[in-house]
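P.,

For your records, the input lines for the assembly:
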Amino acid sequence: MRTESGADERRLVREAQNGSDAAMAQLYSLHWRGAYRAAYLVVHDAAAAEDIAQDGFLAAVDALDHFDRRRPFRPWLHRIVVNRALDWARREALRRRVDGAESVFEPLPPPEEIGGEMIAALKELPAEQRAVVVLRHLLEYTPGEIAGMLDLPRGTVNSRLRRGLDRLREAAEAELTVEARR
Amino acid sequence: MKRDALGEALRGLPVPMPADAEERGLRVVDAAFVQRRGSERAGPESRVPSLPRLALGLALATLLATLLLSPAGADVRAWVGDAFTASAPRPEPTLTKIPGGGRLLAQTGVGPLVVQPDGSRHLLGDYEAASWSPHGLFVAVAKRQTLSALEPDGTPRWSVTAAQRVAVPRWSPSGEQIAYRSGFDLRVIAGDGTEDRLLAGSIAAHTPPDARISPAFVPPAWAPGGEDALAYVTGPGRLRILESETGAVLAAAPAMHGITWMDWADGGKKILEGSPEALRLRPVWPAGHPSRPALGKARRLPLPAGATVVDAALAPQRSLVAASITYWRKHGTYSEVLVFRPGQDPRTLLSVPGSLGQVEWSPDGKRLLIAWPGANQWLFLPLGQGKGRAIANISRAISPDGRPHSFPLIEGWCCRP
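Structure tokens returned:
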């Protein structure tokens, strides 16, 4: 999913650092949807994902002057986005545990076209496992890169990936069994 | 499961995306970018970007985004149209005509006044609260312990004195009754000032202990279709529907946490509950008999994370909800007016830096009046195509004596066709 070459991206960052509206807009256009998708697949909340993706870009604008042009922009943005998505998911889990008064209300159901066993199984994973699965398989970072992005030992990334994939595989096989019995 | 299959599945998954989310983010990022660039420059003029420059930058950014992401030319047109709809119009110095017609009722620092369609104003008197009757023939006003009905020119029709301070008078849809709060009591009086009676209150001998009116003073709301049903919130936070003639409880359910406001929606099929944190829409089902409704589970309307709801309003005779929200970003406070349609993602009608205030629908439900206290403006924005209007110096423009007072509170826009 890397649609822009490293050289082009560096050029856009350089031009944005020099104050180019168009370069900033192009960086935004190139990366917003990927950032939103990554955030959504971790938090499973469209409004939160929008906010997280937006916040990632605001952080990028904030730190633009100090950004090292030799480094790629994309992983830097994804590091912010996925870490904020993880923070949000942890806070939300905590809020659900302590806020019993809200339990009488139901969240809006997802639209019918959103679904499938894969996403349902992904949603069941702990947020930490979701994050590494999304970083590895959606955004195609290596375990070493993920370890750097999340400030985790590489072994922890690998174990979370393994556990996450095991659970996804179980869900997929269960689904296949149900389908076969029909 | 193969790794590639998982990657393909994650990439192909149609994730839900709120309407205008990408464009909304672009506006915020663009504003932050312009602000960053401005702060780097020495001159004070360059710190505040001019409106045309912002608009140009926004249009360019929007166009680029669209060209990169959307193959359809129609999408380009829609995006650019939305971007310009979402900006505030240039303010005019005086209100010479109410866009869309009708009459406005506004509470000013010296009392409520009626704004006529030609912009002329008439002060009703030194009252603390005011409310239109359904067809605009009368105005119910409150002052300390007195509830009165006036003609729109200020001529008094009747007055009653209550035991405690009177607040939030609300006419029933037929105009035959007025519900109001007196202290912690909910009372109802006939439209001609007779038959004043207690409906629910802390001092009533036969009302349950939790029937006290909410300390949050949520105004009661009449069901649109029926004369008799009145919704209110009790002190412990229960939402109740009462039969106004007898006081019988028709339905009850826990109100949303922190509720500050509610109203009936969708012709009486739903109740919209609001708090600073959320908006929730609750179905009202006819349970076996039309006069015995049942309250369903409330469902949350989607809002940007971290947003604070400032105000919300239901369109007359239409299933539309407008909400004014604010949210904080590193670079300051931003505000938006969102319009919710049934079964659709909300649409951003307006997005500005700073804080917006009340929203009020026009009588025909085709435009919104939006208060912008920080800019001292009222904005009249059409829901569809058309030009919006902004009125500047509103604390002076709506003042009865031409002198600036506190920013006016919108009490109503009269009247439904």
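Two observations worth noting. The radius of gyration of chain A is 18 Å. The domain at 109-182 of chain A is CATH 1.10.10.10 (Arc Repressor Mutant, subunit A).

Regards
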